[in-house]
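Record 1 of the preview.
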Amino acid sequence: MTSTRAATWLLLSTMLVAPLASAAPKTKAPAASRPDASVTTARSHAAALGNALRRHLADAGLTDSFAAYAISPSVTQLRRYVESNRLMLVCIVDLALRDEQGSVLATVRGSATTSGASPYEAIDSATHAAVARLPQALQALRASPSNSQVADARRQWEAPLK
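->
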């Protein structure tokens, strides 16, 4: 009776699992050979950020003012959400101001919330907001005689989110 029960269990298990195994999706290609859409998107957003930064610095006449510094831009947040049946897009851009040794001297943040705009337009708007805060950071850096005061100025001029 035990062997009959075991045989029945084995038969039942096989009958239930076999259709599931044949219905499993077939893999097309190894993951390493497929281009990752998120990597491609991140690269295009980084390129858009770099272009927007150069353009807004030039438009504001700040290119020469920041020649002694390196500006490291990054998209901190880029996300979509629905509000009142409208698709909204929020973008937050951080700009880190670095010295010749690569030390961060100041950071500024710009943000933009858009409705019906592309991610590139949101990045452009957030970059514009961040670049508008750079003169305050530069003023604080120039006013400070030592590195300890630079750190305090960085905290003082780090712009909060609106």
